Amino acid sequence: MTRKRDWARFNPETDLAIDRRIDAPVDLVWSAWTDPDRLKQWWVPRPWTTPEIEMDLRPGGMFRTVMQSPEGERFDNAGIFVAVEPKAWIAWTSALLPGYRPAGDAEHCGGIHMTAGIEFRPDGAGTHYIATVLHPDRASRERHEAMGFHDGWGTVIEQLVEIVTAMKADAR
Amino acid sequence: MTRKRDWARFNPETDLAIDRRIDAPVDLVWSAWTDPDRLKQWWVPRPWTTPEIEMDLRPGGMFRTVMQSPEGERFDNAGIFVAVEPKAWIAWTSALLPGYRPAGDAEHCGGIHMTAGIEFRPDGAGTHYIATVLHPDRASRERHEAMGFHDGWGTVIEQLVEIVTAMKADAR
User: Fold this and answer.
1) CB within 8 A of A97, min separation 6: which ones?
2) ipTM over 0.90
3) What's the sign of the alpha-carbon dihedral A63, A115, A71, A158?
4) For residue A91, which residues of chain B lie inside 8 Å, CB to CB?
5) B50 sits in which H/E element
6) Tens digit of pLDDT for each residue in B60-109?
7) Helix-strand-coil split of chain A, %, nearest 5
8) Where is the Activator of Hsp90 ATPase homologue 1/2-like C-terminal domain (chains A, B) (predicted)?
9) Who among B14, B82, B101 is closest to A115 (CB)?
């Protein structure tokens, strides 16, 4: 399975990245990520919603999310996890489907093939949350950027922070 | 990493398969497969040749072969291994490149995306050699078949048998 060390070196030509320090321990951030009921609460920028999530949390396991617009239009995104290292590293790709079948064109994933990885790095009492998204080429990176990568992924990290802040308060 | 049990169920609509009993033990067949100098001797139907092979034999590792026509035209095929279980199971895909970067279109792999797996199953003193090739859709399977899958993969298994037969004679 992928380990962080096998990950492609970041290439500004083809890749996108976003990171943020979250004021909550890795345990909580990992849990908000990997519990589908929690993930649904922050995965897409509101007022969009995530009515469905399938996550089979192991390399090769399905990772499918359905995004829904405020008007009720649904967008399916399917792929598989390629790495699951609890509380450290999770990565998934749209290029393969369960059973390791190649996905072919990118119709099942919003028109853009990507492999994304999240590193959860302990940072004092908090977490350094580092997302890197690899694309096959410059055109895909540009399309993803034009679709609002930085706003979108930035917003959902804020939503994730809300969830873990509430979890932290509950834990007290 | 992929284990055989995670492999997609064979679908005659989208997939191709070929199997053969080889009269040599799994040890020898595995070694003829995983030693690049031996693999070069049987990987493509003669008089085509395989002037270059890169194999980094681990999940995520590069698997790149260059096929050359008798006229000297070269065809590059790149991908990564997704499973390497010594003497039991090896699988690779053209849908991802090293670093788990999605490959995008299929220009780097002869126009067809596939994930292929080989099972090496002990069968008495011999080996049951079972190749399964998964495609994203029916059109890719048909194109692969029209390009001569059965002849091509059949011929190279014969060439593999020649190599392991020679290895068996040497070992005596």
Assistant:
1) A62, A78, A79, A80, A103, A108
2) yes
3) positive
4) 100
5) strand B49-55
6) 999 999 999 999 999 999 999 999 999 999 999 999 999 999 998 877 77
7) 35, 35, 30
8) 23-164
9) B101
For every residue of A16-48, DSSP letters joined together read EEEEEEESS-HHHHHHHHH-HHHHHHHSS-TTS
Shortest alpha-carbon distance between residue B103 and chain A (Å): 5
Vertex B104: Cα angle to B100 and B110 (nearest 5): 105
- Does B1 reach chain A within 8 Å, measured CB to CB? yes
Cβ contact B101–A9 (<8 Å): no
Find the closest chain A residue to B98 by CA distance.
A8
- Residues of chain A positioned with their CB less than 8 A from the CB of B3: 60
Whole-angstrom Cα distance, residue B73 to residue B66?
Answer: 10
Q: Tokens for B82?
A: 């997704």
Contacts of A137 in chain B (CB under 8 A): 104
CATH class of A4-171: alpha beta
Q: What span, in angstroms and rounded, lies between the C-alpha atoms of B93 and B100?
A: 11
Q: Is B5 on the interface with A (CB under 8 A)?
A: no
* C-beta atoms of B102 and A91 within 8 A: no
Phi then psi for residue B137, to 5 deg, are -160, 175
Contacts of A2 (CB under 8 A, 6+ apart): A59, A82, A83, A89, A91, A117, B59, B60, B100
User: What does the angle CA B75 – CA B78 – CA B80 come to, to the nearest 5 degrees?
Assistant: 160
SS3 A94: coil
Q: How far is CA A37 from CA A33, A129, A165, in A?
A: 9, 20, 16
The pLDDT profile of chain A, 172 residues, written as one tens digit per residue, is 567 878 888 999 999 999 999 999 999 999 999 999 999 999 999 999 999 999 999 999 999 999 999 999 999 999 999 999 999 999 999 999 999 999 988 777 777 899 999 999 999 999 999 999 999 999 999 999 999 999 999 999 999 999 999 999 998 7
**Chain B, window 91-110: residues with a beta carbon less than 8 angstroms from a chain A beta carbon:** 91, 93-96, 98-105
From chain A, the residues in CB contact with B135 under 8 A are 101-102, 104
